[in-house]
């Protein structure tokens, strides 16, 4: 769904994947539930849309929608940094993430959608 800010229309979604330090398979049970809640909390606080989340035993997949003002690297830093800090403050067991991550873009702008947007702008002020 196309969203808008005061000066932009956008539909930006990022597929983000990252792993815990030492690739330990411990993201299960209560840890998984707690992390999913923390990811949702972070997205709400930062004005992001958490479209999908899947916490696997040894890695995390997130599908996040964001306004264009947020760089993908900033979103990843927020998610990883804040989630580790919040989790480690709230619970006895620890979560640490590796420094690496994968991020890919996903959008659904077709040639027709771009043409329609351009046609709508004709006659309007830029």
TrEMBL record:
Q: Where is the Transposase IS200-like domain?
A: 9-121
Q: Which SUPFAM superfamilies match?
A: Transposase IS200-like
**Looking at the Swiss-Prot or TrEMBL record, what is one Pfam family this protein matches?**
Y1_Tnp
Query: Under what name is this protein listed?
Result: IS200/IS605 family transposase
Identify the species of origin.
Halorubrum trueperi
Q: Which gene encodes it?
A: tnpA
